[in-house]
Design brief:
Elements lengths: L2 H7 L4 H15 L9 H11 L6 H13 L3 H22 L9 E2 L2 E2 L1 H5 L1 H22 L4 H15 L4 H11 L6 H26 L4 H26 L9 H26 L7 H11 L3
Antiparallel strand pairs: 1-2
Helix pairs in contact: 1-13, 2-5, 3-7, 4-5, 4-10, 5-7, 5-10, 7-8, 8-10, 9-10, 10-11, 11-12, 11-13, 12-13
The structure holds geranylgeranyl diphosphate.
Geranylgeranyl diphosphate binds next to α5, α9, α10 and α11.
Length: 288
């Protein structure tokens, strides 16, 4: 990884700092008018402020740079996507789902704040994400409503939640690569897809460019999941994962070909170098 690629997602990246500051601003605006709300706000802060890699919002800001849109204009949108991502992790870690004790090297939200508060923190992040988008982009209501609808599709039945349902019900039963990749496209790919497409919509791009950004985002989302599967297989190959189906070498090959598809999608819109290309390369090589 060269230093340019590293800087795309490193904690010191100015984009990550912008996202973190905006997330903190959002948290600070929560009105704690009763001490009874304190655990909930602490729980929200615990998962949103001490975020992970911020891959989805960084991706959105970079797409914006390529389309000539300022980060200021896009911060509410990319934070909304990150809020939905954060809610999905909090809920996914609950005993009723994956029942995980640790995330990002720390106890999971429900381990610290209890299940009821963790559930509510997730509910709030999901609900407020839509409010944030609606209020931030009502100046151009057509674009704003379009973005809200896209976000709903990406997070809901046809997207992340549907993917999670398929995953829960089909656990250890992924015999076909196509259906496993479809699950990943829903569960992981949809948020990558929507952050890119939404930026194109909110910046007033042509329908053609919106579609191309959608295609690029979907492709990068799949690449992200394949890289994640490889990282998770470092010690042991998890049943039901892509490496369990096609092996480590097969998964690396899939990651390489999907990364090339993502680059090809960018080439079609004239992007052959720069931070979006760097991001594809970073994901292909990442180890965390
Ligand atoms: C509970 C509705 C609902 C959905 C859960 C996101 C998800 C769906 C489950 C989490 C488990 C998982 C491994 C999902 C695949 C997506 C993924 C790779 C999540 C981790 O994303 P990162 O690496 O996390 O961007 P950080 O910590 O960096 O934010």
């Amino acid at each position: 990884m060269n230093s340019q690629t590293e800087s795309v997602v490193s904690a010191e990246s100015p984009r990550v700092a912008l996202i973190n500051d905006f997330a903190n601003e959002w948290l600070q605006k929560l009105s704690v008018h009763s001490e009874a709300l304190r655990p909930l706000v602490d729980s929200l802060r615990y998962s949103l402020a001490n975020g992970g890699k911020r891959t989805r919002p960084v991706l959105g800001l970079i797409v914006g740079e390529q389309l000539g849109v300022s980060p200021r204009h896009l911060l509410p949108w990319v934070l909304a996507v990150e809020m939905i991502h954060t809610y999905s992790l909090i809920h996914d870690d609950l005993p009723a789902m994956d029942n995980d004790d640790f995330r990002r090297g720390k106890p999971t939200n429900h381990k610290v704040f209890g299940e009821a508060t963790a559930l509510l923190a997730g509910d709030i992040l999901l609900t407020e994400a839509f409010g944030l988008v609606a209020r931030s982009y009502c100046g151009n209501s057509e674009r704003g409503i379009h973005a809200v609808a896209l976000l709903s599709d990406a997070a809901g039945f046809a997207g992340m939640c549907g993917g999670q349902a398929i995953d829960l019900n089909a656990k250890l039963n992924h015999h076909q690569l196509d259906s496993l990749l479809d699950l990943h496209a829903r569960k992981t790919g949809c948020l990558f897809r929507v952050v890119c497409e939404g930026v194109a919509v909110l910046s007033g791009s042509s329908v053609d460019l919106q579609n191309r950004m959608r295609q690029f985002g979907a492709s990068l989302g799949l690449c992200f999941q394949l890289a994640d599967d490889l990282i998770d297989s470092t010690d042991k190959i998890e049943a039901g994962s892509v490496p369990a189906l096609v092996g480590l070498a097969g998964t690396r090959k899939l990651l390489e070909s999907e990364s090339n598809r993502a680059r090809a999608a960018l080439k079609e819109i004239g992007i052959v170098h720069g931070p979006l290309i760097d991001l594809v390369g970073w994901n292909e090589q990442r180890t965390f």
